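Quick illustration, no need to memorize.
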Amino acid sequence: MIIQMLLAEAGAEVRDREPVMVKGEGIEAAADWRHLKSAENYVGYAQTRNFASPGGAALDKPHTYEPPARLDTNEWALSGIGR
């Protein structure tokens, strides 16, 4: 509304000043918070859960990680060089 007001002050023709609802679809859709079931997770290997990079974690040494072809719900993975 402020942008509309500033445009009007600058001489632009503002036709409709009523706000509109925007419904995102696909990847722009809002999360379904009532049905989201992702548990808390920790990235450190001592407490993490559902790590899905092929071959698992390389503990305490450099390793090149590849992402899996697909992640299931609540899984996570790394891609690239981990140090």
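The two ends are 48 Å apart (CA to CA).
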